[in-house]
Design brief:
The chain is mainly alpha-helical and about 350 residues long. It contains 14 helices and no strands.
Length: about 350
């Protein structure tokens, strides 16, 4: 149904890796630790490396998070549509995939935030680093409404929220017909709950997730050629909406859907066009970005924190480092290298070990 013989959406996986790199670029301003973490500090004279080229990532990298959620809906529907997997096995797979690196980065950040505090008597990134928020992070519920703000390895908040939607998705595929109507219905119900207490973030995530499901189902119904036409038309519609007057009254989730769904539609159609091409060297290398995207997303902040500790300890001029193109290239290369090694030698072995142990416990 998703193309003859297709086993993986390589280009969509690659786009997930690119989105993770955009988040990394957004947080690159962490090297200016005296600047407000929540505000892009260009007004203070700070100019990031390649800013004229990479300004969308520097200033709007947070939009990668809803894009992640839509990709998750797309891929989950591709993998689990029609599946009769038990909740236990589904939960074990998710836990084994996500928790080991989360725990490792949580402990790394705990240690180096403490070291940084000893040097400058503050934790300038995510300030809620207390025992209460540590417990929330330990149980992977750091963004379920019990928190007072971001804490420790801050980017994990989006994964924490998504865990709730995973459970909802499993219930969906086990109890309801997986189709366009049910996907839209669940997205609409989720949208109605975005203003409810404690449900805002999970509901917002669910809207984008089930719109990703809708995008996948639409792609499989349209086929390659029509999907390419619809994707191109969707991009034109988004441009008209985004550039037209009166956009303030349009729900943000609708605008994001109009922005992201056509991209997924086109990438998915190109992946379906000739499955044999998925064996080419270039596509395999692009897919590596998707393989390491979770590691890039979780490891880039601990690496920033470790480097900031070293910079402060050495007394190096932070302004010089933060706008140095050489330092930026070295930082990005370091994150990608460490993420690849983590994926291959830590995450994948831990995933296999935990799945084997927990599946037979």
């Amino acid at each position: 149904m998703s193309g003859p013989g297709i086993k993986r959406y390589y280009l969509i996986d690659a786009s997930r890796g690119i989105a993770a790199i955009c988040v990394m670029a957004l947080h690159y301003k962490g090297f200016m630790i005296d600047a407000s973490w929540g505000t892009y500090p260009s007004a203070g004279g700070y100019k990031a490396p390649l800013e004229d080229l990479l300004w969308p990532a520097y200033r709007h990298g947070e939009l990668a998070v809803p894009f992640f959620w839509m990709i998750s809906g797309f891929i989950f529907c591709f993998v689990y549509r029609g599946s009769k997997i038990s909740f236990r096995n589904f939960a074990v797979k998710r836990f084994a995939r996500l928790y080991p690196l989360h725990l490792a980065t949580l402990l790394i950040v705990l240690a180096f935030q403490a070291v940084l505090y000893l040097q400058i008597t503050e934790t300038p990134f995510f300030p809620n680093n207390d025992p209460y928020h540590f417990v929330l992070n330990l149980f992977f519920i750091s963004a379920w409404g019990f928190e007072t703000g971001l804490s420790f390895n801050g980017p994990i908040w989006s994964v924490s929220v998504e865990l709730i939607v995973y459970a909802l998705f499993w219930l969906y595929v086990r109890t309801l017909p997986v189709g366009l109507l049910t996907a839209v219905l669940l997205a609409a119900i989720s949208f109605a709950l975005t203003k409810a207490p404690f449900l805002g973030l999970p509901a917002y995530c669910a809207v984008l997730f089930f719109l990703g499901v809708f995008t996948y189902l639409t792609l499989t119904k349209l086929g390659v050629r029509r999907a390419l036409y619809v994707g191109a038309g969707g991009i034109a519609l988004f441009a008209a909406v985004a550039l037209g007057p009166g956009t303030d009254g349009i729900p943000k989730t609708l605008v994001l859907f109009l922005a992201f769904a056509p991209v997924l539609m086109i990438l998915g159609a190109l992946d379906m066009r000739n499955p044999r091409e998925h064996k080419t060297w270039l596509l395999r290398q692009l897919a590596v970005l998707g393989d390491i995207s979770y590691a890039v997303y979780l490891l880039h902040f601990p690496i920033i924190l470790i480097l900031v500790n070293l910079i402060v300890l050495a007394g190096v001029d932070r302004a010089f480092l933060s706008d140095s193109l050489l330092f930026f290239v070295l930082f990005v290369s370091l994150v990608i290298f460490v993420s690849y090694q983590s994926t291959r030698y830590f995450e994948q072995p831990m995933r296999r070990y935990l799945q084997r142990k927990l599946s037979h416990a």
